[in-house]
Amino acid sequence: MVDIIIQGIHGRMGRALVSLAQERTDCRIVAGIDTAALPCPVPVFPSITENTVHADVLIDFSSPAAAQVAIEYCSAHKLPCVICTTGLSEQQQEALCTLSQTVPVFQSANMSLGVNLLIELVKQANAVLGTDFDVEIIEKHHHNKLDAPSGTALMIADALREASPVPYAPVYDRHAKRAKRAPEEIGIHAVRGGSIVGEHEVLFAGPQEVLTITHSAASREVFANGALNAALFLAKQPAGMYTMKDLIYL
């Protein structure tokens, strides 16, 4: 049994984690971190620094500011952590890399197995199609999502840039750019509306044909289940940096 603390336990993802964990027998939520004072089946502390409950892993679905405190806490307590928060600064990314030298760290902008498989398929498509096909990424989320573009859209773009010999450069907004599209551009577009859980579409537009690779999440349980599986995986690992790719090819 793996004992888990959730930072951001009263958020949408935190509530989904609690609900899903109650149906499993391989892990349990033992505490939560959240500034909101709401009913919860486990003790909830306003800050991770005030936590008094022992756990095997921390799952963070919060904010960049709270994630920074979690990084420092996990470093001091040698607590493995699954970082799902997006929008981290370069300094925070460096802090995570430093933390991974002494503590197992799992980080992914998207905890869905399907999304991470989509990324692998996109890389394969790009390797075949090359610059003969223009690449555009469209992501859609609910109207409460703060960051745009999504961390997943950026993760897709980064994967393409790392895997391709083409020096791809992201273009986020075309309304002020009156110029022909360059072959090395990756257009990234954000849609915010209603209660869309998460949709990502990668479009390869070529001469006389278009290839589209898409993923649509019907429920937040997709991401919650991925985060719990990551926590179980991480509890058995030595210090290091891990991603969803480690789960896919486990």
Radius of gyration: 19 Å
Number of helices: 7
Order of helices and strands: EHEEEHEHEHEHEEEEHEH
Strand proportion: 25-35%
Mean pLDDT: 93
| Strand element count | 12
Question: What is the first-to-last residue Cα distance?
Answer: 20 Å
Largest sheet: 7 strands, parallel
Shape: elongated
- Secondary-structure class: alpha/beta
Helix content: 25-40%
Strand line-up across the major sheet: 3-2-1-4-5-6-12
Low-confidence stretches: none
How would you describe this protein?
- The protein has 250 residues and is of the alpha/beta class.
- It is 33% helix and 26% strand.
- It contains seven helices and twelve strands.
- Strands 3-2-1-4-5-6-12 form a seven-stranded parallel sheet, with helices on both faces. A five-stranded mixed sheet has the order 8-9-7-10-11, covered by helices on one side.
- Helix 2 (64-77) links the parallel strand 4 and strand 5.
- Helix 1 (12-21) packs across helix 6 (221-234), helix 2 packs parallel to helix 3 (90-99) and helix 4 runs parallel beside helix 5 (151-163).
- The chain is elongated and about 60 Å long.
